[in-house]
Amino acid sequence: GNSVTQMEGPVTLSEEAFLTINCTYTATGYPSLFWYVQYPGEGLQLLLKATKADDKGSNKGFEATYRKETTSFHLEKGSVQVSDSAVYFCALRGGGFKTIFGAGTRLFVKA
Amino acid sequence: DADVTQTPRNRITKTGKRIMLECSQTKGHDRMYWYRQDPGLGLRLIYYSFDVKDINKGEISDGYSVSRQAQAKFSLSLESAIPNQTALYFCATSDLETGNGYTFGSGTRLTVV
Question: CB-CB: which of B41, B102, B105 is closest to A99?
Fold first, then answer.
Protein backbone atom coordinates (compact mmCIF):
# COMPACT_ATOMS: atom_id res chain seq x y z
CA GLY A 1 0.00 0.00 0.00
CA ASN A 2 0.88 3.66 -0.10
CA SER A 3 3.15 5.08 2.58
CA VAL A 4 5.05 8.23 3.50
CA THR A 5 8.28 8.40 5.48
CA GLN A 6 9.69 11.67 6.74
CA MET A 7 12.72 12.48 8.82
CA GLU A 8 12.35 12.35 12.55
CA GLY A 9 12.61 15.49 14.54
CA PRO A 10 12.94 17.67 16.25
CA VAL A 11 15.00 19.81 13.94
CA THR A 12 16.57 22.81 15.66
CA LEU A 13 17.98 25.66 13.58
CA SER A 14 19.13 29.20 14.12
CA GLU A 15 17.29 32.00 12.40
CA GLU A 16 18.33 32.47 8.74
CA ALA A 17 19.64 28.91 8.46
CA PHE A 18 18.79 26.65 5.52
CA LEU A 19 16.08 24.08 6.11
CA THR A 20 15.62 20.64 4.59
CA ILE A 21 13.05 18.15 5.79
CA ASN A 22 13.25 14.87 3.93
CA CYS A 23 10.20 12.99 2.72
CA THR A 24 10.05 9.81 0.66
CA TYR A 25 7.01 7.90 -0.44
CA THR A 26 5.80 4.57 -1.77
CA ALA A 27 2.79 4.59 -4.05
CA THR A 28 1.18 2.94 -7.01
CA GLY A 29 0.17 5.14 -9.89
CA TYR A 30 0.69 8.89 -9.87
CA PRO A 31 -0.19 10.43 -6.54
CA SER A 32 -0.34 14.09 -5.62
CA LEU A 33 2.09 15.18 -2.91
CA PHE A 34 1.58 17.77 -0.19
CA TRP A 35 3.25 19.51 2.71
CA TYR A 36 1.07 20.66 5.58
CA VAL A 37 2.11 22.83 8.51
CA GLN A 38 0.68 22.77 12.02
CA TYR A 39 1.35 25.77 14.26
CA PRO A 40 0.94 25.33 18.03
CA GLY A 41 -2.68 24.93 19.05
CA GLU A 42 -3.97 24.89 15.49
CA GLY A 43 -5.07 22.45 12.84
CA LEU A 44 -3.05 21.51 9.79
CA GLN A 45 -2.84 23.99 6.95
CA LEU A 46 -1.90 23.18 3.40
CA LEU A 47 1.54 24.68 2.74
CA LEU A 48 2.25 23.55 -0.81
CA LYS A 49 1.51 20.81 -3.27
CA ALA A 50 2.68 19.14 -6.48
CA THR A 51 0.49 16.99 -8.67
CA LYS A 52 2.90 15.42 -11.16
CA ALA A 53 6.53 14.49 -11.58
CA ASP A 54 9.02 17.40 -11.72
CA ASP A 55 6.42 19.88 -10.47
CA LYS A 56 7.71 22.32 -7.88
CA GLY A 57 5.32 23.51 -5.21
CA SER A 58 6.14 26.75 -3.42
CA ASN A 59 4.61 29.01 -0.80
CA LYS A 60 5.90 31.46 1.84
CA GLY A 61 9.51 30.81 0.81
CA PHE A 62 9.15 27.03 1.12
CA GLU A 63 9.70 24.77 -1.88
CA ALA A 64 9.45 21.07 -2.68
CA THR A 65 9.98 19.24 -5.97
CA TYR A 66 8.16 16.06 -6.92
CA ARG A 67 10.95 13.60 -7.81
CA LYS A 68 9.51 10.41 -9.22
CA GLU A 69 12.89 8.81 -9.88
CA THR A 70 13.84 9.03 -6.19
CA THR A 71 10.23 8.95 -4.88
CA SER A 72 10.95 12.04 -2.82
CA PHE A 73 9.36 15.38 -1.99
CA HIS A 74 11.81 17.16 0.30
CA LEU A 75 10.80 20.47 1.87
CA GLU A 76 13.33 23.32 1.71
CA LYS A 77 13.58 26.93 2.76
CA GLY A 78 16.57 29.13 2.24
CA SER A 79 16.31 31.24 5.40
CA VAL A 80 14.07 30.19 8.26
CA GLN A 81 12.46 32.55 10.76
CA VAL A 82 11.35 32.04 14.33
CA SER A 83 7.77 32.18 13.06
CA ASP A 84 8.43 29.01 11.01
CA SER A 85 8.58 26.95 14.20
CA ALA A 86 5.86 24.34 13.74
CA VAL A 87 5.26 20.70 12.89
CA TYR A 88 5.50 19.83 9.19
CA PHE A 89 3.69 16.88 7.63
CA CYS A 90 4.39 15.30 4.28
CA ALA A 91 1.33 13.69 2.69
CA LEU A 92 0.32 11.70 -0.37
CA ARG A 93 -3.08 11.49 -2.04
CA GLY A 94 -3.52 8.72 -4.56
CA GLY A 95 -6.39 7.50 -6.65
CA GLY A 96 -9.74 7.77 -4.94
CA PHE A 97 -9.94 9.70 -1.74
CA LYS A 98 -7.31 8.61 0.67
CA THR A 99 -4.55 10.88 1.97
CA ILE A 100 -1.65 9.26 3.81
CA PHE A 101 0.26 11.46 6.26
CA GLY A 102 3.79 11.12 7.51
CA ALA A 103 4.48 11.17 11.25
CA GLY A 104 5.39 14.86 11.24
CA THR A 105 8.67 16.70 11.86
CA ARG A 106 8.86 19.34 14.55
CA LEU A 107 10.97 22.39 13.70
CA PHE A 108 12.34 24.77 16.30
CA VAL A 109 13.94 28.00 15.10
CA LYS A 110 16.06 29.96 17.61
CA ALA A 111 16.51 33.70 17.43
CA ASP B 1 -15.98 32.26 10.66
CA ALA B 2 -13.63 29.35 10.07
CA ASP B 3 -14.23 27.11 7.06
CA VAL B 4 -14.25 24.03 9.31
CA THR B 5 -15.44 24.46 12.90
CA GLN B 6 -14.99 21.87 15.61
CA THR B 7 -16.65 21.87 19.00
CA PRO B 8 -15.66 21.63 21.75
CA ARG B 9 -12.03 22.79 21.56
CA ASN B 10 -11.14 21.01 24.79
CA ARG B 11 -12.92 18.35 26.77
CA ILE B 12 -12.14 16.30 29.83
CA THR B 13 -14.38 13.32 30.42
CA LYS B 14 -14.46 10.28 32.64
CA THR B 15 -13.92 6.68 31.63
CA GLY B 16 -17.14 5.07 30.47
CA LYS B 17 -18.89 8.28 29.51
CA ARG B 18 -20.37 8.90 26.09
CA ILE B 19 -19.05 11.94 24.30
CA MET B 20 -19.74 13.58 20.96
CA LEU B 21 -17.39 15.78 18.98
CA GLU B 22 -18.98 17.97 16.36
CA CYS B 23 -17.76 19.32 13.05
CA SER B 24 -19.40 21.73 10.64
CA GLN B 25 -18.08 23.19 7.39
CA THR B 26 -18.84 26.03 5.02
CA LYS B 27 -16.58 24.81 2.18
CA GLY B 28 -19.40 23.02 0.36
CA HIS B 29 -17.26 19.88 0.22
CA ASP B 30 -18.93 16.50 -0.03
CA ARG B 31 -16.12 14.57 1.65
CA MET B 32 -15.50 14.74 5.37
CA TYR B 33 -13.03 12.92 7.61
CA TRP B 34 -12.21 12.36 11.24
CA TYR B 35 -8.57 11.91 12.21
CA ARG B 36 -6.82 11.27 15.46
CA GLN B 37 -3.37 12.72 16.20
CA ASP B 38 -1.02 11.18 18.74
CA PRO B 39 2.58 12.27 19.32
CA GLY B 40 4.97 10.49 16.96
CA LEU B 41 2.17 8.70 15.11
CA GLY B 42 1.02 11.37 12.74
CA LEU B 43 -2.64 11.38 11.76
CA ARG B 44 -4.70 8.23 11.68
CA LEU B 45 -8.04 8.02 9.91
CA ILE B 46 -11.01 7.05 12.06
CA TYR B 47 -13.99 7.44 9.71
CA TYR B 48 -14.76 9.15 6.44
CA SER B 49 -17.87 10.08 4.50
CA PHE B 50 -18.22 10.82 0.80
CA ASP B 51 -21.74 12.16 1.12
CA VAL B 52 -24.67 12.12 3.51
CA LYS B 53 -25.56 8.50 2.75
CA ASP B 54 -22.01 7.18 2.69
CA ILE B 55 -20.04 6.31 5.83
CA ASN B 56 -16.84 4.28 5.87
CA LYS B 57 -14.48 2.98 8.50
CA GLY B 58 -10.89 4.12 8.54
CA GLU B 59 -7.88 2.37 9.99
CA ILE B 60 -8.80 2.83 13.68
CA SER B 61 -12.60 2.86 13.92
CA ASP B 62 -13.01 0.53 16.91
CA GLY B 63 -14.60 2.34 19.84
CA TYR B 64 -15.89 5.18 17.65
CA SER B 65 -19.03 5.89 15.65
CA VAL B 66 -20.04 8.75 13.38
CA SER B 67 -23.11 10.48 12.05
CA ARG B 68 -23.39 12.61 8.90
CA GLN B 69 -26.40 14.75 9.71
CA ALA B 70 -26.12 16.96 6.63
CA GLN B 71 -23.61 17.76 3.93
CA ALA B 72 -22.08 20.30 6.27
CA LYS B 73 -22.12 18.33 9.53
CA PHE B 74 -20.19 15.25 10.60
CA SER B 75 -20.03 14.20 14.25
CA LEU B 76 -17.81 11.67 16.00
CA SER B 77 -18.97 9.76 19.08
CA LEU B 78 -17.12 7.77 21.67
CA GLU B 79 -19.77 5.46 23.08
CA SER B 80 -17.81 4.54 26.21
CA ALA B 81 -14.65 6.57 26.51
CA ILE B 82 -11.41 4.95 27.67
CA PRO B 83 -8.09 6.58 28.64
CA ASN B 84 -6.24 5.49 25.50
CA GLN B 85 -8.67 7.59 23.48
CA THR B 86 -7.00 10.64 24.94
CA ALA B 87 -5.74 12.47 21.86
CA LEU B 88 -6.17 15.43 19.55
CA TYR B 89 -9.03 14.92 17.10
CA PHE B 90 -9.31 16.67 13.76
CA CYS B 91 -12.11 17.00 11.28
CA ALA B 92 -11.19 17.66 7.66
CA THR B 93 -13.00 18.20 4.37
CA SER B 94 -12.07 17.81 0.73
CA ASP B 95 -13.47 17.96 -2.75
CA LEU B 96 -13.13 15.23 -5.37
CA GLU B 97 -9.86 16.34 -6.92
CA THR B 98 -6.85 14.34 -5.76
CA GLY B 99 -4.71 17.35 -6.57
CA ASN B 100 -6.42 19.42 -3.92
CA GLY B 101 -5.56 19.29 -0.28
CA TYR B 102 -7.70 18.98 2.79
CA THR B 103 -9.13 21.76 4.93
CA PHE B 104 -8.77 21.04 8.63
CA GLY B 105 -10.56 22.28 11.69
CA SER B 106 -8.64 23.56 14.69
CA GLY B 107 -9.02 20.30 16.57
CA THR B 108 -10.57 19.00 19.76
CA ARG B 109 -8.23 18.05 22.59
CA LEU B 110 -9.90 15.19 24.44
CA THR B 111 -8.70 13.86 27.77
CA VAL B 112 -10.26 10.73 29.26
CA VAL B 113 -9.54 10.28 32.95
Answer: B102
- The pLDDT tens digits for B30-56 are 999 999 999 877 899 999 999 999 999
Return residues 72-91 of A near B (CB < 8 Å).
Answer: 89, 91
Task: Average the pLDDT over B51-63 and give the result.
Answer: 94
Q: Choose the mutation target among B7, B54, B102 for the interface with A, i.e. most A CBs under 10 Å.
A: B102
Kindly report the average pLDDT of chain B as a whole number.
93
Give the number of other Cβ atoms within 10 Å of residue B41's Cβ. Answer: 13
User: Smallest Cα–Cα separation from A52: which of B96, B95, B98?
Assistant: B98
Q: Is the dihedral of CA A108, A61, A29, B95 positive or negative?
A: positive
Could you give the angle at the alpha carbon of B61 between the alpha carbons of A36 and B101, nearest 5°?
20
